[in-house]
Amino acid sequence: MDKYLFPDVYVESILDLPLEKLYVLGIRAFILDLDNTVTEWNNREVREEVHLWAKKAKEEGFQACIASNNSRARVLAVAEELDIPFVHKARKPRRRAFYRAMAAMGSSPQETAVIGDQIFTDILGGNRMNLFTILVVPLHPREFFGTRIMRKLEKPVLRRIKEAIKRGEINSIFSD
Ligand SMILES: [Mg+2]
Fold it and tell me: Contact 32/139 with Cβ under 8 angstroms?
């Protein structure tokens, strides 16, 4: 089961992603979770650092597409601000949204990474599709009620992930 729940990489924030190293690995496209990955939950504001990150990623040859379980209006607002495509009501970890995001970017599974803060939606979904998976620490503790329940279920998995990082089985950041 852990095979499907463990990310390939665990970082504090999307801002910490080593883009050059991901590029060398062949990654060219990001399927981005929205709530608590790109913005705080249900907060429209995209922080300046995130704007700069998105710009830098684009310049370095990466595409991005938001895939969020949230509503159209909510996802559209942020996608427009970042000028990237989106899939709303994604129902992750189901596969359909991941296929649609890759279709929107024209990317293959081999060159696509999923980035998100939730193990049972983002990471499980990405692993089921055999995509590269990147877990980030949630931006803010304020969350949807259903998510708070999931966090309890995530706890023992996170503990095992941290043990795997110590054993060197997962990159916590790509160390040089
Ligand atoms: Mg999220």
Answer: no
